[in-house]
Design goal:
Blueprint (H helix, E strand, L loop, with lengths): L52 H19 L16 H11 L6 H10 L5 H15 L3 H7 L7 H11 L4 H12 L10 H9 L5 H13 L3 H7 L9 H12 L19 H14 L1 H14 L4 H13 L6 H13 L4 H13 L3 H10 L8 H13 L3 H12 L4 H10 L14 H9 L1 H11 L3 H14 L4 H10 L3 H10 L6 H4 L5 H11 L3 H12 L19 H11 L12 H18 L4 H10 L1 H7 L7 H7 L3 H20 L10 H4 L9
Length: 672
Amino acid sequence: MPRLMHTRCALFIGLSSIGLATTTFAANEITTVDTPINTPIDTIFEPLASESAATKAAENKRFAAALTAARNGNWSAVPDNLDSHVLAPYIEYHRLRSSLPQLSMSQFLEFEKKYSETPLPNWLRSSALRAYGRAQKWDAFLAMSPALPYSVENKCYFYRAKLKTDKELAFSGGKTLWLHGASRPDACDPLFDAMMAENQLDDDLIWQRMELALASGNTNIVLFLERKLEQESWKKSLSYLETIIKKPTVIAGLPELSVSEQTRTPRFAYSAMMYLANENTLEAARLWPQYQQKFNFSLSQIENIEDVLLRYIYLLPEDQLRDTIHPILERRENAKDFEFVLRNAIKESDWDAILKWTAKVGGTDALDSYNQYWRARALENKERFDEAQEAYKVASEQRNFYGFMAAEKLGQPYAFNKDTRLISAESLTEVGESPAIQRIKALMAIDENSLALSEWYFIMQKYPEKVQVLAEYARVNDWYNLSINATIQGKLWDFVPHRFPLAFQDQFNRWAEKRNVDPLLLMAIARRESAFNRNAMSHVGARGLMQVMPGTARLIAKQLDVEYRGPEQLFDQDYNIKLASHYVQTLSEKFNGNLIAVLAGYNAGPMRVDRWIQTKYDSYDQFIESIPFRETREYVKAVLTYRVILEHENGGQRLALLDPTERSFPEYYSQN
């Protein structure tokens, strides 16, 4: 594939060490770049001439088979002569891991010292702690983790290990683990049993956890724990609690109907109200004004309950919005709290309400392009043109959907806000020669892409000051996904070429031409869907660059009369683009070229869009804000924004986020 020419992004940075301790780099070095920035690093330093492509391929195949055998514990299939391979640490890791829980501390320390510049010791430590805990090898556990570990399961093992030497600490930590509204790992049960045996988990602590579980909606935990309160004095409380679970609205009787001391407290009232707010928001909103006055709730409790009411605000009728929600919003200033009422006002063209709620937004959210753009739109409609221009100006300085929309309103260029510092060629060469990068390359060569990504994250976390160099190294080597990951890890939001590389351009251009669609639109969809990770797979099973579902792929392949061998084929980027581009073409034909509907259909399904487009809106920005799914609204805005940025990176310039034909709403919105 021909190399894509990128705008030179720059940053004079030197390096200390990255990778194994055997490699060191000069610090704070500033040099002149003689090598073009878009020259791949592999050409800056020459590979060994004796290593032919065929030899490398054979070696990769041999090592991949050995690594698979090591994972499966099939040591007879693992050759002995792999010590010189750059990925040999992975074989040793699996060898030590397979010895658990017999792994000695001296073996671990030797491994940790030898491979401290890799993520492997951390992985081995985590596996060892679980293995020691399950085998009840407490001395080994505490030797491996003298301080409290991170995971809840290992915390349980830690305190169990402390039962012999420091019961006070064990019981104190056990109480912290106990007082939680969610289930605890099975590893905690022996700790809790030991605490109960020594009266460290009394009835009040059991009741407190039941209240926490009720507030979290985990009623199974409540019903399980009630069996531990067998004394007669708890029967009335338990009976009332069961009634609340079956019929949450009975809390309207609190405190008049309270039948025990335990159900009369503000703590119980808070748990009951949280449960009601989640189970029956309409009733909770009705009761909240009077209920708040009955109990001396803390500020954090009030905020938690009101957060739930705001989460389900869309369920409430107008009178409850006015009587309950609006007073809550008068005390708030976070933009997310106003989203629903603002969107309602936008859909209804209620410019007075838009001005009211945008004025309530505080902090940095007040200057966000969304808030400023819609405030400007309302000011325009109220004929306060000078104020509108000022609001548009604030919004237009931001590189996002509403920033670009505001720039269009002002008739000025988009603000891309690119970081234009320079990185030295020497720094990039040193990165390329580091053991960490060599391992990443070797892992990619044997299709161990998830391990390569883990190595990438590890090196960024270990050397945060080097993330800028790593981002540039990934960009010039067309490691598109790793480049994007580096900008996220380093919060390099203005590293525009690194965040929006012109990835897989040949394939996008070829299939876009065949489908008569914009190639940069396809690229923008892929950027949003997978961040250009061709191996991406979502939790629902969508795969590849453009996140095609296997069922959709099967249908498209049938329509195109092409072979579909199964879900794994969708990880081939060319095949993925081939199918997805056809789907985009189909959606474009269905929705008469309306790109908002096309993108909404790609994300949420065309049948939903058929329903949404039946309501007419005065302008396309109002239509976008009317889309009921937050994910789809943000998806449409993101892809349109990405297309502008990618076109700018490609040397072009869009004059509008949407051309007139892409945003028009003909009388018949779709051809069904």
